[in-house]
Write a structure and sequence with these properties.
Largest sheet: 2 strands, antiparallel
Number of strands: 2
Shape: elongated
Strand content: under 5%
Number of helices: 28
Order of helices and strands: HEEHHHHHHHHHHHHHHHHHHHHHHHHHHH
Length: 665
């Protein structure tokens, strides 16, 4: 059983573009933001988070309200209310029933002039206040008057024009010209409102500028593969944006989700993508909607929920076809193929990849062509058809060289090495991996560097040089922990466990495998959880503890069937047969092997078919049926010869011996 050394692919994500409708005075700032969100690229290889809510608008001035003056004792006013009031300008009172001594008394008690008190009485007459309420209302008017003058003295403005208008209003109030005072205060308000509008406009521009600066910082961190730090800057950018900048906010949330995906924080990424999706739908941005649906599918793919991933991709595909986005359509077809690849349905995966390739060739997308060739090669690799896989990889490598795609070249060289490794040509495999490593280190692609170091360790592992293999794995682990690549960390821990297993140090192997399993379960990767359970089962199998191994295999089988991973299902059935074999129950072992063989034949897994066919032949030998054994072993050797299997020579010798024994009978 293999130890799941990295098998890096170059699946990619689609991008969405489009500028929102904004005022001309902010176009330069928005453009600065938008170029950062064009053409985001993420791979299929490998959050909710609380967003900071932006509060827009200018800050209001603090209002000082002076305390009202102490009220004097109530004095009853006697007499008829028969005067008249002339409205507008100064208020004049002709009220012979208000004795001069009463005006004098109120003027003394309230601390105002007789003219002011007379105007207060004019207000009472104008509003037809009943006589029994005059005393209370007079004092209320006096209180308001004092408070108003106190406010006009205490609440100052930084605008000299407003200060001047308020001083004029104060004098108009003292002159009893309330209409003029109201007009002057309205003029002061108009000046303040105009200033507020300008301040809010400036504040809005500043918020957009600050958001752009955070976006710059986010890209700076992404250049260094510091995805967690980049995510923090995208979050600040989204929070700073004014409410009407919906499209740009959606792209900030989208990028924030992408960076969380880079470090396998899928639970944090998902709600961010969903918020981004809601905004794109609200503003009618179909391209953004299609892109975000594509990225949501990535999360479900990465966590082994292939059925849900496919639903999102089908929605994305429908949108791109609706708006005529050929590039988006080609990318989505490519990504759909990866679902079927994960399910082990290689014919359907190949069909979608071929459709994607036709579109990419039609629109002249050379980078897309290279990615499609690369992914097609992986299908043939997994089916054991190494010559065809190599042919496609060579075409992908040629395109990467033509367009100067160093990252693509590094990945393709890595994948070419897998062909030679599978054939047992380890020196050639190592040569390609070393080329890949030089490129990834040159361009600073830490994620791919971690993968390549892990695969170099695999070559030394297969050659039996476990100390060197362990050294490369430890380098890979440091890089993956440094950049927060949880999925990659889990893979490397798994591979370190494989090294100790080969050493016979099952205790240490189990420790690393359990650490790997904990990480894989933490990020919700069901597909690889099944693989880890299978690998842990292998430890107990090697120790002869079949009672513990069997439930682990069975859990792995349930998960593999649940996520539709037929390739893993075929492998686990093959491994379960091994327990029955060790227990001498050859008929049951044969039953599981026949189930494994059917799956591997259905998905076109020639390498797996060769292994299981050989094991079936061995089971028939144990049962004394050499004719049947010869039939299955012949098929196995034929497949090994076709794909260049490293065990070909050894198995061919055994087959010769079986045939000789048959002839001897």
């Amino acid at each position: 059983m293999d130890n799941q050394f990295d098998n890096s692919s170059s699946g990619e994500q689609n991008t969405g573009q489009g500028d929102g409708a904004i005022g001309k005075h902010m176009q330069w700032l928005i453009k600065k933001l938008q170029w950062l969100w064009r053409n985001p690229e993420v791979t299929w290889s490998g959050t909710g988070a609380t967003l900071i809510v932006a509060i827009g608008g200018a800050a209001a001035s603090w209002l000082f309200w002076p305390p009202p003056p102490q009220q004097p004792n109530t004095i009853s006013i006697m007499g008829d209310n028969s005067g008249t009031v002339v409205a507008g300008g100064n208020v004049t009172v002709n009220n012979p029933n208000v004795p001069p001594e009463l005006l004098a008394k109120y003027a003394e008690e309230l601390g105002e002039t007789k003219q002011i008190i007379n105007s207060f009485f004019g207000t009472l007459l104008k509003e037809k206040v009943p006589r029994d309420q005059w005393d209370n209302k007079l004092r209320e008017i006096a209180t308001h008057y004092k408070e108003l003058l106190a406010r006009l003295d205490s609440v100052k403005s930084e605008d000299p024009q407003v200060v001047k208008l308020k001083e004029q209003a104060k004098q108009a109030i003292k002159a009893n010209d309330y209409a003029k005072a109201e007009e002057l205060l309205n003029q002061a308000e108009a000046l303040d409102l105009k200033a507020i509008e300008q301040m809010e406009k400036t504040a809005k521009q500043r918020r957009i500028s600050a958001a752009a600066t955070n976006a710059d910082n986010a890209k700076l961190q992404e250049m260094q593969l510091r995805y967690a730090k980049a995510a923090a800057y995208w979050q600040k950018a989204a929070a700073l944006l004014p409410e009407d900048q919906k499209e740009v906010r959606a792209r900030c949330l989208y990028k924030l989700g992408q960076d969380f995906c880079h470090i396998s924080r899928y639970a944090d990424a998902l709600p961010l993508y969903e918020q981004s999706l809601a905004i794109f739908r609200e503003i009618g941005d179909k391209a953004g909607e299609g892109t975000t649906l594509n990225n949501i599918s990535e999360i479900h793919y990465a966590t082994g929920d292939y059925g849900t991933a496919l639903k999102y991709l089908e929605q994305s595909l429908a949108i791109f076809r609706e708006i005529g986005d050929k590039a988006g359509e080609g990318t989505t077809l490519n990504n759909i193929s990866l679902i079927y690849h994960a399910w082990g349905d290689y014919p359907t995966a190949l069909k979608y990849l071929e459709q994607s390739l036709v579109i990419r060739q039609e629109i002249g997308d050379k980078a897309g062509n290279g990615a499609s060739w690369n992914n097609i090669s992986l299908i043939y690799h997994d089916r054991g058809d190494y010559p065809t896989a190599l042919k496609y990889l060579e075409q992908s490598l040629l395109i990467a060289g033509e367009i100067g795609d160093k990252a693509g070249k590094g990945r393709t060289l890595n994948n070419i090495s897998l062909i030679y490794s599978a054939r047992g040509d380890y020196p050639t495999a190592l040569k390609y991996l070393e080329q890949s490593l030089r490129i990834t280190q040159e361009i600073g692609d830490k994620q791919q560097e971690g993968t390549t170091l892990s695969n170099i360790s695999g070559i030394h592992w297969r050659q039996g040089d476990y100390p060197t293999a362990l050294t490369y794995l430890q380098q890979s682990l440091r890089i993956r922990q440094e950049i927060g690549d949880k999925a990659g960390e889990g893979t490397t821990l798994n591979n370190i466990g494989g090294i100790y297993k080969e050493h016979g140090d099952y205790t240490t192997a189990l420790k690393y495998l359990e650490q790997s399993l904990a990480i894989i379960q933490e990020i919700g990767d069901k597909a690889h959880e099944g693989t880890l359970l299978n690998n842990i089962g292998q430890i107990y199998y090697a120790k002869g503890d079949y009672t513990t191994a069997m439930p682990l295999y069975e859990q792995s089988l349930v998960i593999s069937r649940g996520v539709g991973n037929r390739a893993m299902e075929g492998m686990t059935l093959n491994n379960i047969s091994g327990i029955h074999w060790r227990q001498g129950d050859y008929p049951t072992a044969l039953t599981y092997l026949q189930q494994s063989l059917r799956i591997r034949q259905e998905i076109g897994d020639k390498r797996g078919e060769a292994v299981t066919s050989w094991n079936i032949g061995c089971a028939y030998i144990k049962q004394g049926n050499l004719a049947k054994a010869e039939q299955y072993m012949t098929r196995s050797v034929d497949l090994m010869q076709e794909i260049g299997h490293p065990k070909l020579e050894e198995c061919s010798k055994v087959l010769v011996a079986v045939r000789a024994k048959l002839r001897g009978r």
